[in-house]
Amino acid sequence: GTAQTLREYGYAGPIDVMPNGADPFLTTDREGARAAAMAQFGVPKDKKILLFVGQMVWQKNLKLVLDTLSSLDDSYRLLLVGTGYYEKQVREYAQKIGVADRCIFTGRVSDRETLEGLYLCGHLFFFPSVYDNAPLVLREAATAGVPALLVKGSNSAECVTDGENGYLAEETVEGMSNRIISIFKNNEERAAVGRRAAQTIPLAWSELTKQVEARYAAVIDTHGRK
Fold first, then answer.
1. In angstroms, how far is CA 123 from the centroid of its own chain?
2. Angle between helices 30-41 and 112-121 (to 10 degrees)
3. For the chain, the helix, strand and coil percentages under 3-state DSSP, each to the nearest 5
4. Which DSSP state fits 166?
5. 206: pLDDT confidence band, cut at 50, 70 and 90?
6. Cβ(105)–Cβ(91) below 8 Å
7. N or C end of the chain, less CB within 10 A?
8. 59: which DSSP letter?
9. Per-residue pLDDT tens for 36-84?
10. Nearest CA-CA partner of 58 in 138, 125, 129, 134
11. Residues 101, 69: contact at Cβ < 8 Å?
12. Distance between CA atoms of residues 188 and 181, nearest Å
């Protein structure tokens, strides 16, 4: 998808697409980190937590996120981590459609271990952005063992096989809400999908750097002979 976007911009040369990396979690006490984050930000223990991490900008499909929450019952809560140009408008929209009391806005989180704890709070990473190509946050969520729900056919979803290491749905409120309800009907399967996401999606930066270095060496070698 990223390569196709470059083609649409008019680029006709060779393309190598490299994935994003993800650092291993610093915390060794995942339960402790989760409990600390829940206490700090008031994340309830008895609700299904949908997690969004990223910039508060409409391009991330946040209207769809909030509209989907509005279509779900009171057993769901939405944990939104991050800030951005439109955070005030996002909060106002949540108030307008009556879901503000079911949203937890953390604002900017710059402490790495706190962010890790927030990832661990999520039961499902809800990221229906069609704006991103290889989102780092998807890889971080997978590192936490949190499966993601993405838009079917989006660039963000290229590393996900539906029902195996993540979930895909149509870019509509009905499509997303129906899939979320279905996902939470089987918590054991959802946890298994999260484990497979952790095994298949993240790539350590140390390994990615080796791939990039090898590719640069090949390019230098090719052009050096001309």
1. 12
2. 90
3. 50, 15, 40
4. B
5. confident
6. yes
7. C
8. G
9. 999 999 999 999 999 999 999 999 999 999 999 999 999 999 999 999 9
10. 129
11. no
12. 14
Q: Which residue has the higher pLDDT, 13 or 152?
A: 152
Q: How far is CA 189 from the centre of its chain?
A: 19
Q: Can you tell me the distance from the alpha carbon of 76 to that of 72, in angstroms, rounded to the nearest whole number?
A: 7
Whether residue 166 contacts residue 160, with contact meaning beta carbons closer than 8 Å, is answered with yes
**50-63 core/surface letters (b: 16 or more CB in 10 A; e: else):** bbbbbbbbbebbbe
Q: In the numeric block, which tokens belong to residue 110?
A: 């710059």
Q: What are 212's two structure tokens? A: 């990039």
What's the one-letter identity of residue 177? Answer: S
Task: Work out the angle at residue 80's Cα, subtended by the Cα atoms of residues 79 and 82, and round it to the nearest 5 degrees.
Answer: 145
Report d(CA 96, CA 30) in Å as an integer: 36
> Residue 182 to residues 63, 77, 118, 167: CA-CA distances in angstroms?
21, 16, 24, 11
Q: What element of type H or E holds 104?
A: strand 103-105
For all residues of the chain together, what is the average pLDDT?
A: 93
Q: Is the pTM of this model over 0.90?
A: no
